[in-house]
Each structure stands twice: as C-alpha cells, then as structure tokens.
Amino acid sequence: MNSMIKPRSFPPSDELPHPVGEHPLWQESVFLVWGDVKQGIYGFHRIGQECNANDGAGMVTSWNGVATRDGARFSRYLFEPMQPKDRHERGFRANDLVSMDYDGTTRWRINDPVCSFDLVSTDYTPRFDLFKDGGTVVEDFAKGHIEVGGDIKGRARLGDVEYAIDGMAYRDHSWGKRDRSTMLSHRWIAGTIGPELTFNATAWHGTDGSLQTYGIVCRHGEVAYARKVDIVVFMEIDALTHRGGILSMTLENGEVIELLPKLVDGFLTKHHNTGVVDALCEVEWNGKKGFCDFEISTNPRAGTGPIVSLVRATREQGLSRRDWSL
User: Fold this and answer.
1) Number of C-alpha atoms within 13 angstroms, CB side, residue 105?
2) What are the beta bridge partners of residue 187?
3) Which residues contact 50 (CB under 8 A, 6 or more apart)?
C-alpha cells in the first residue's frame, strides 16, 4: 500500500441526498451502529433507497437490530416501494419506520410498536473514506462512502423498558452502483471506543476471484490507513454466525492495533439473495470499552439455497429473547 495516499474527505453537503444516477442498481444508503456501554444496549440501522428499481418508482429497505447485554433484542426488516416523502432535502426515510435527518448533527428515529428511539449523534471524527483504490468492492459496491464516529444521546424504548442513551455511534453514508451479485463473502468491522480510536476494516471476496482488505483508524481527529489487515472470525457450526473474533491492523509506522470483538447478539438480514449477519459486539482497547458491528457474509460458492439454521443470530421479527442453546 502507498503510505502517501491521503484519505478522502467530504463536505457537509455529501451528508444529504445525491442526484440519482442512471445505473439500474444505483442506490443511496445511510447506516448507524450505536452503543451505550454502561447500560449494555446496542443497535444497528440501515436505510437503503434503490431509486431506479420498481420500474423507476424506487424501493426502500431498512435493516434494524437492537440488543441488550441481558438478552433482550429487537429485529425489523423492511423492503417496500418508496414513498415521495422517503427522499427529501434534509435526509432519508424508510416509509414510516425509520428516518435520518442531517442539520450539522445526525438525528435517527424509529417508530415501531415494540421499539422506538430518537437519537442525535454529534461527530468527533472528520468524514473519511475507508476505500482508497479500485476493484469490485469499490466499483460495484461502495463508490461514494462517508465514515464518521461520534457521540450519541437521546431516548430509546425496547418493549416496556425505557433508556436514556448517552453513548457513542459509528455511521456511514454511501451512494452509487451497488451490485450485490459481485460479493461472495465479506467481513466488515466498524466501531469506536471514543475519540481515542474509531476504526473500520473490511475483507472482500469477489466473484471475479479478488481478495481485498482495507483498514483505517481515526485517533483524536487524525486519520490513517492500515497497510495490513487481518480479520479472524470465530465461526459457528452453522457457517453463518459467529461469537466474535480478532481484528489486527498494522499501520504505516509499524504500530499494531489489535481488537477482540465479543458478541452481544447477532441479526440475520436476507436481501437480494444475500444473507448478511450483523453482530453487535463489545470491544476494549487500552483499558477503554467500546463497541462495533462485526458484519459478515459467507457464501463462497454463490449458492441460492435457503438459510435454515442459525446459532448466534436471530431472524425473528419484533421482540425476542436470546437463546443460544443448540
């Protein structure tokens, strides 16, 4: 890797909706993973707008998972025709379920009968880009890609339990062509422990045979690429879910940052013939605790058979309790 490459930066205007491209698979999506470590509650949320689908009327998807350290969890998947209000000048909606608005801070809201929240994230990192060169992961999956870490505050309700959230967040925003058929398997770890360390690492296995890795860290506002990334997954017998793993990133100066994500809970999302597991994990670095989303897909032969068994993730919609007995 070329140590002289400077991570790309983005203006505030890139937080807002972009002009829709002509490619049939053009999409724009925003993603949030958040955690309140003291209370042991974590969540991930995605709004994806596939604007040229449905004969040009568009489709909107939302992936949502919330988990607590003591075993409560919520999952909700949405894939429906877009409504005119889903795409507006201040942000994005997924019909009446989830919204994200940007006005210098980022406000996420979800309105579900069994889970709701209103959370505002204030950035403590600059906007940066994980990807720095080409290949299928960039050209076909994530051409424009903002990454940011920050604080998060607000309220949340899970079932009958109310939380006053005071935690941290990692979010991204991507736009452009997204061809999921080019991905066989991947690993994606994104999270933060605070301004001291925000991190993202990806390993990609493409249908063209490519094997690529990317890594980046931000510490007290300074962003740097990793020249070597190693991701190990502690995979379960179902070959789909995991209980954590190891992330090791070697920076250009030779420093090694190693994190050991430990699973809180996992969530399966099936979208466009891909099965993706988002695993909300706790991490610790230099004595400070944080969190990450340790997302994986494992599909090396590009099969299309049904997913029938899960060990450490749920596909049950709504509220449920964690049960990891085989």
Assistant:
1) 13
2) 203, 296
3) 25, 26, 27, 58, 59, 60, 61, 178
CA-nearest of 176, 187, 185, 179 to 206 is 185
Output the six-digit token pair for 61. Answer: 């998807």
| pLDDT for 326 | 62
Q: 3.40.50.1000, 2.40.370.10, 3.40.1190.10, 3.40.50.1980: which CATH number matches 26-316? A: 2.40.370.10
The C-alpha torsion from 234 through 143 and 194 to 111, rounded to 10°, is -90
Do residues 187 and 249 make contact, with C-beta atoms less than 8 angstroms apart? no
Can you give the pLDDT at residue 134? 57
Amino acid letter at 116? S
Angle in degrees, CA 66, 223, 212, rounded to 5: 70
The structure tokens listed for 303 are 């099969």
pTM above 0.90, yes or no: yes
Token digits for 221? Answer: 């506002």
Angular region, 324: left φ>0, alpha ψ -120 to 50, beta rest:
alpha
- In terms of Cα–Cα distance, which of 260, 273, 2 is closest to 133? 2
Residues pairing with 77 in the sheet? 63
**In the Cβ-directed half-sphere of 198, how many Cα atoms lie within 13 Å?**
28
What confidence tens digit (pLDDT) does each residue in 17-47 have?
999 999 999 999 999 999 999 999 999 999 9
Place of tokens 């309790």: 321
Count of CB atoms situated within 10 Å of the CB of 32: 24
Q: Where are the domains of the chain?
A: 26-316
pLDDT > 70 in the chain, percent: 94
Query: Which pLDDT belongs to residue 2?
Result: 40
